[in-house]
Every structure is written in C-alpha cells, then in structure tokens.
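Board notes (copied after class):
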Amino acid sequence: MKFKRHKWRLSSSTKLPLLVLLLMGAISVLISERVLSRLSNGQEEYLQGLSSTYLDGLSASVVPAVLRKDSWEIFDTLDRMSPKNIRIKLVETIVTDTGNVVLAANKPLKHPTLSKLAAEFGSRFVADRAVLDVESNLGFRMRSIYHQGKEVGRIYATFDALPFLQERKNVFYTLLFTNAVLTLFIASFGFFAVRRMIAPMRVLEEHFLDAASGELKAISRDEFPKGQSDASRMFDAFNKLVESEQERGKLVQNLAREERLAGLGRLASGMAHEINNPLGGMLNAVDTLEKHGEKVTTRQRSISLIRRGLLSIRDIVKATLATYRPERDARDLTRQDFEDVALLLKQELMRRKVDFFIDLPSKRETFPNIPAGPVRQAMLNLCLNAISISKEGSDVFLTLVEDESYYNLSVTDNGPGLGEVPLAIIEADDKIQVPDDMSGLGLWMVREICSEIGATLSAKEVSSGGTEITLRLPISGKEVVKDAA
C-alpha cells in the first residue's frame, strides 16, 4: 500500500501560524469593538452631562417668557446663555410650545418664530437623551420645560459632534494599525517558532511515510535537531525501531531459509530412498547383463528393468524441479502437479504409515488462471503438515472443488486439531510476522503465498475428527501474481 503525498496540503508549520493569525484577528476585532463601544458610550454620557447642565439652566430661565410666549425675551435669554469655552459647540437652540410651534431660535431665519417645527428635524431627537449622528456630525438633545409639574414647552439643542466623532475615528484607526502590526508580528514569530519546533516532526513524518512505502531507513545523525532533547530521544527511538525491524526481517529470512533447507533435507532423504530403490534394481540388471547378456530373454528383461528404473528417477527429479525451482513462465495448474505432489510425499507417507487420497474434477486436466508454482508449494506444505500430525494408519485427503469464481483446494487430516498459534496464522487478515515460538512456520509460509496470489486461507474441524484447511483460490489469481511481480 502506497501513501500519496499531497503537495497542496498546508504543513503544520504553516497551519499553526495561520491559526494564530486568525485567532489574533478575532481577538483584535473583539477588543476594538469593545473599546469603540465604550468610547461611544463615554462620549454620549459626556455630551449628556454637558447638555444637561446647559439645558437645566436655560429651561429655568425661560419659563416665565414661555408662559407669556414672549419671543423677544426668550431670544434674549438664548443669546445671553449661549455656552462659552466648553468642549462642545452649540449649533442651534430652539424653544417651542407643547405643540412644537417655534417661540424663538438662535437662528430665526432657519426656524422662523411662530412657525411649526419641521417634523423631519424633530424626529432626530429622543426625549431627554443625547444622540450622536455620524452622517451629519451633529449631536441632538431635547428637554421639556415644566411649570408646577406641567409641560409648557420644549427646548431643542443641536451641538457640533465632529470632535467626538473625529476622536472615535482616530481611536479606530489607531486600534486597527496597532492590532494589525501586533497580529502580524505574533503570527510571524509563531510561524518561525512553530516551524523550528515541528521541524523534527516533519523529518519523522517523512521517514514514517517512506517506511509505509517499503523504504524503511534510519534517521541520519545530520538530521538530528540541535538543542531539542525530546526530539533527539524520539529520533533515537525511531532508529531503534528501524534496527529492530531490520533484525526481525533478517530473522524471518533466516527462518524461511532454514525451513526451506529443512524441507530440502527431507526431500533429499526421500529422493535418496526413492532413487536408491530403482538404482539397486538397475545395478542388479547390469550384473545380470554382464553374466547372462547373451540370452535374449534375460537381456530384454534386464533392459526393461533398467528403463523402468530410469523413468522412475526421471519422474522424481522432474517433480522436484517443478516444485522447488522458480518457474520462468506463469503456467496454469494441471492434474500432473497433483500427481507430482503425491510422488514427493510418498516417502513421508510410508514413514508415517499414512494413506493419501486425491479427489479432482474428473474431466479437468488443466485449471486455468491458477499459478502452478505457488499453489504446488502451498499444497506440499499443507500436506506435510497434515501428515505430521496424523496418527498411524489414518488418511489425508487433497480435494479440489470448483465453483463459479473460485477453486476450493482442501487438505483434510485425522489429527488432534490445530493449536492456538497455527490457528492464529490461518485466520490472520493479512501478512503477519513469523510466530514468536517459531512453530507453524510451514503454515506461515502458506499464509505468505496466499497473500501473494490473492487467495484466502481458512480452517475448520470436521465431524469425523481432525482439521480441514482450505485455500480459496480466485480464478483471476494468475493476474494477481503478475501484478504483484
């Protein structure tokens, strides 16, 4: 399985500073909003206080004139009480009766006496509260005039709010600039700091991805970070893991080699026995020919015996080569392969006194899309395992059943059943490590073969006692082997 590296994905050294940048931006917006909100409230409260002081004095002064509706006296009072030397600048002051009829104004040309106050102008005021208008840069304040608890008139005052709004704008731009500089500085510092901090993790990630792709290699000392003891310890631990895995790989190879050598030893012993039998007969036939070769009947019988012995030796050598020599062409499994396996098992069957039976589809000579080499090796290992655990005088069966998409190759014995380790090897979902106690190595090799050719391996107990191990071979297995190669 190969892991794809997406170059377009942001690395952690980039994502973390970006996250800090976004977080700082959100904090800056929140802080700016709160500061501006507090400033706006403070300015309105300040305007409220100053305007209240002015309007309290003015309303008390104009009460008699409002009761008499003396416009000249009201105008004179407005002129005399116009605020001087304060932060806010008075723009307009209008005194009306309860029906919003203008009694007097400091700008009589704009608001004529005894005229109705414009509704649009009056809608800008809120009862007894100062209001700042950003669009017109003005502040508005309205105060009712009371006499003996009864409203007798109203005062509308308009102030120049530009200094307040300008201050608010200056604060806004100051906050924006300060927060932007601070955010960029923190993000830049975070980028380089985080990049330096996680640089060892990126090296470790690259090596893990290489390991997942089958290129397991240790981290060189040149890649070790300087001054980061935690990262150095992780790198050391990874290198020890690589060393341990490489040693385990070598151990697996050695064990597999030893298993093959042990199998070859058993094979050589069986071959020696099988070859010695016809060789003995052939030597006797040669001696007979030397002594009685002039007799036609004796000569023909001796030559026939030598021929049969040579043919027997040829079959044994041919079957051995077909099983243990890597095949140069991915040929399909044939009926002859089953007969060869039976021939190779003959000596072991005789030694263990076990009978061996093969059950194949009667009309099949070739089994398409089933690779002969790996399947022969798997059959031989499974049969040797079944023979080794079978009791004397019992039977071992090799059966092939075909359905629509699979061949089910089964080996059945009459032994005591599988142990925990062999069963775990058979039921593994994918390739597994060699067993720790090194038992079940033959089954492990069969498991490796199944992984290579895309077959599945299963085991079950049979009702008569013993175990049935089945290789489920996909008919497209040949293509799987080619692809794996």
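Comment from the instructor: The radius of gyration is 51 Å. Residues 12-172 form a domain with the Beta-Lactamase fold (CATH 3.30.450.20).
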